[in-house]
Write a structure and sequence with these properties.
Chain A is α+β, with helices and mostly antiparallel strands. Among the domains of chain A are: 141 residues, Gyrase A, domain 2; 75 residues, Elongation Factor Tu (Ef-tu), domain 3. Chain A is 20% helix and 31% strand. Chain A has eight helices and 20 strands. Chain A has a six-stranded mixed β-sheet, sandwiched between helices. The termini of chain A are far apart. By secondary structure, chain B is α+β, with helices and mostly antiparallel strands. Chain B is 20% helix and 37% strand. In chain B, the strands form two sheets. A six-stranded antiparallel β-sheet of chain B has the order 1-2-3-9-8-5. The longest helix of chain B has 9 residues. Chain B is globular. The two termini of chain B are 17 Å apart. Classes of the chains: A alpha+beta, B alpha+beta. At the A-B interface, helix 7 of A face strand 4 and strand 6 of B. Chain A: The glycine cleavage system is composed of four proteins: P, T, L and H.
């Protein structure tokens, strides 16, 4: 077998050899060869819900913005008000095109007065890097591609604070959700962030790739008697789906504005200065208020067949009233669930007659509010 | 060193077919297929009494990531379906060649291009 010259070689994380030793089933994800699951993805999912799971997320794309106008760059380039972010805090935000379309959803960490780290989805990292670099041109700030500077490990689940505490002196109790601080974990310098994509408490640890395996082994050891298991991208997807979190390419695309996605709150019109997309997003906000677009809702299957991305949503007459964007059997609920964009008239929880066309058969579904799952605090 | 039992025959759609006993053969999916699917959460099997045709779809398997059609490796009448696997689809993952069998068929004709275990080994190593 020879590789096609137009097909770039798959990228491998610093933990690649370890994943193979652990017997992971690997999958291509945005050009990266990533663990899909190690054993049963449903057991990995339950481990994160009830105990703890360890993920390699090194495919995520880090971009660092530094300089006296670093905050202004991000205020202009993104839709959020990042210059107002306190040092040590993180924010969920988006980058939009001039027409208001979503280029990517992002988490931005303020690491210092003049230093921010933008974390983009692997599939969009280059596009985001290019856009931020271009949009930074007239500012006194530097944009740095740090994709190869970090490995990213996530420890997620109710046991994750205890596991991490045993390996660090950092003040985890003082570390709020969506905050990050530099520290040392198992002797490894790390940016410790209390963020995640699972609907559970948890941490994301940005470290040098050379330190990744040492950190993974230390976390595995510290978590052994707390039921921590290695987890792949398959359970990450069902965890985020249950938690009602959007995934770029599914719930979020360049064809949608943040208002279309029900996430208009991330657009901060009252921030200082102009920003890319302001005009289009102003119009999109007005349009969304006047004529509600299709709404992102939850669907719970009444049968056992699984609604998948791209399947049509229909009303009682069989007319298409929406489309599934993500769907999977929910390990927590025990039934198939989905997120879908549905006409506003049928988007209310309990709307009658809503079905998903599953390969030609109208399968009844209940419309529910998102999320499907919310942890107890 | 094959994990694919010697006495079975295999389709390129990753079903296995037992040697018929009194004209009735058993159908399942291979462990290779089960591993590729991941956790199977729902199986839809043909009805008892239905006629299945070799190489044609006769059901589906839902897993976390995808849905897959089930192809019959044999033509004939379905005499029995495995209610245990309907109730607990994880048997497809845990025991694909044993407790995870799917249905039984009174054979009228087998698929034309079924593989031996050795041939199937080579096919999946492909």
């Amino acid at each position: 077998m020879s590789e096609s010259p137009s097909q770039p070689a798959q990228r491998r994380t610093a933990l690649d050899a370890l994943h193979r030793t652990l017997g992971a089933t690997m999958t291509d994800f945005a050009g990266w060869d990533m663990p899909l699951r190690y054993a049963s993805e449903r057991e990995e999912h339950q481990a994160v819900r009830t105990r703890a799971g360890l993920f390699d997320l090194s495919h995520m794309g880090e971009i660092t913005v530094t300089g006296p106008q670093a905050g202004e760059v991000l205020d202009y380039a993104l839709v959020g008000h990042l210059s107002a972010l306190a040092v040590g805090r993180a924010r969920y935000t988006m980058i939009c095109a001039a027409d208001g379309g979503i280029v990517d959803d992002l988490i931005v960490y303020r690491l210092g007065d003049q230093e921010f780290m933008v974390v983009a989805n692997a599939s969009n990292a280059q596009v985001v890097l290019d856009a931020v670099t271009g949009r930074a041109a007239r500012f006194d700030a530097a944009v740095r591609d740090d994709r190869d500077a970090y490995a990213l490990l996530a420890v997620q689940g109710p046991e994750s604070p205890g596991i991490l505490k045993s390996l660090t002196d950092a003040d985890l109790d003082g570390l709020k959700y969506y905050a990050g601080l530099p520290g040392t974990v198992a002797g490894v310098p790390a940016l410790i962030a209390r963020t995640g994509y699972t609907g559970e408490d948890g941490f994301e640890l940005f470290v040098a790739p050379a330190d990744a395996e040492r950190l993974w082994q230390a976390l595995t050891g510290a978590g052994a008697d707390k039921g921590l298991v290695p987890c792949g991208l398959s359970c990450r997807d069902t965890l985020r789906l249950e938690a009602g979190m959007p995934l770029y390419g599914h719930e979020l695309t360049t064809a949608l504005t943040p208002f279309d996605a029900g996430l208009g709150r991330v657009v901060k019109f009252d921030k200082p200065g102009d920003f890319v997309g302001r005009e289009a997003l102003t119009a999109a906000a007005e349009k969304a208020a006047a004529t509600p677009p299709r709404k992102l809702v939850g669907l719970v299957a009444q049968g056992r067949r699984v609604p998948r991305a791209g399947y049509p949503v229909t009303d009682a007459s069989g007319a298409v009233v929406g489309e599934v964007t993500s769907g999977a059997p929910s390990p927590t609920l025990g039934v198939p669930i989905a997120m879908a964009y549905v006409d506003a008239a049928l988007a209310a929880p309990g709307s009658a007659g809503v079905a998903v066309d599953i390969r030609g058969a109208q399968e009844p579904h209940e419309v529910v509010a998102l999320p499907f799952y919310k942890r107890e605090r | 060193m094959s994990i694919n039992p010697e006495q079975l025959r295999y389709s390129k759609e990753h079903e296995w077919l037992s040697a018929p006993e009194a004209g009735v053969a058993t159908v399942g999916i291979t462990s290779h297929a089960a591993d590729a699917l991941g956790d199977v959460v729902f199986v839809q099997l043909p009805e008892v009494g239905a006629t299945v045709s070799a190489g044609e779809t006769c059901g589906e398997l839902e897993s976390t990531k995808s849905v897959s059609d089930l192809y019959s490796p044999v033509s004939g009448e379905v005499t029995e379906v495995n209610q245990d696997v309907v109730d607990d689809p994880s048997l497809v993952n845990s025991a694909p060649f044993e407790g995870g069998w799917l249905f039984k068929v009174r054979e009228s004709a087998e698929g034309a291009d079924l593989l031996t275990a050795a041939e199937y080994d080579a096919f999946i190593a492909g």
